[in-house]
Automatic annotation (TrEMBL):
The keyword Lipid metabolism does not apply. One of its GO terms (molecular function) is transferase activity. This is Cysteine synthase family protein. Residues 27-317 form the Tryptophan synthase beta chain-like PALP domain. Pfam families: PALP. InterPro entries: Cys_Synth/Cystath_Beta-Synth, TrpB-like_PALP, TrpB-like_PALP_sf. Its cofactor is pyridoxal 5'-phosphate. It comes from Leifsonia williamsii.
Amino acid sequence: MTTIDALPHQTPGVLPEVEVCDSVAALISNTPLVELHSLTRGLDARVLVKLEGRNPGGSSKDRIALNMIRTAEAAGALAPGATIVEATSGNTGIGLALIGRLTGHPVVIVHSSDISAEKRAVLAAYGARLVEADWEAAPDDPANPRAVADRIAAETPGAWRPAQFANAANPDAHYRGTGPEIWRQTGGRVTHFVASIGTGGTVSGTGRFLKEATGGAVRVFGANPTGSTYGGGPAGRILVDGVGTAWPRDYWPDTFDHAIVDAVHTIDDAEVYRTVRRLASEEALLLGPSSGLAVATALRVAQDAPPGSLIVAVAPDGGINYLTKAFAPEWLAAAGLD
Ligand code: PMP
C-alpha cells in the first residue's frame, strides 16, 4: 500500500488520507462479514456470511491462486514466465488468470462444458487459453479434466500444474487468511463454521485455524449438494457449481481434512436455489449457488445450536456470474428447479 501523495501524477497535499493499493493482488482477502436478518427470523442463533465475492477476481479462489503461485515460485517449481495449467470449475481459473496477468505467466484453463457463460468471458478477458473437458469422466479416463491438464502440461516446456485438489498451499491460504479474519471480525466469538466442499480447502484450512484458536470448541460443518458423494449419498448430477464430487464414495481430496470437519450436511437442489433467491430478494445479497448451499446448511445448524451461537458461513462467490443460470427462469425450468 502507498499513500496517494506518493503517486507521480497526483498533486502533493491533495487527499493525503486516501490510501492506494500498489497492485490488484493487494486487494485479495480481508472480505467483509454481513449478518442475516430475514432468513434467520425466529432463530436464537446469529448467522454471519463471509462475502468472498469481494475479492478482485470475484471469489475465495483468488486467495489460493495467490498462495499456490507464491509458494511454487519460492520453491522453484514455477519459473518466471512459465505456463500455468489447471483443471477448474471456473473460480480457481479466474484467480490464476488474474495473477498470471500480474506476474507474466500464461494460463491454460481446462473447464467443464457447463461452466457459466459469464465465467468463460471473464477467463477470456484475463487472457487465459480455454480447453473444454468431460467433468464426469472417471480419474483413469483420458477425457478426465485433470488428465487433460496433465497432458497439456507435459507437452508445454516448463509448465506447472497447481493441482488444487492436492496442493497444501490451498488449505494453507485459508489457515493463514480466512480463519484469522473470521476470528478477528467476530472478536473470537464464532461458535460454528460452515463451508461448502469442493476441494475442501476452505472448510479444512479455516476450520483448522478456528479449532486451534478455540481449543477445539468451534464446530465445523461441510455443505454438500445432492449428487455428490461427499455426504455419503449416491453419485448423480450436481447442479451447484464448484462443489461436490460425483466420484466414488471413498474419494476424498488430499486438501480435505477429516480431523477438522465434524459433519457434512447434504442439501437438495430445490432448497439451495430457494435460498439463493431468498438471499437476493430478502437480504439484498446477490450470491452464487454454493453460497445458497452454505447458508441453507448454516440455517439447519442454527436450528440445533444453543441460544447465542454465532455461526459463520462462507459465500464463495457472488451472483453476477450466474445470471444466466441460477437467476434465469429458463435455466431453472430446464433443471426442474422453478
Ligand atoms: N463454491 C465455489 C463457487 C467454488 O468455485 C469452490 C471451489 N471449487 C467452492 C465453493 C469450494 O471451495 P473449496 O474448494 O475450498 O472446498
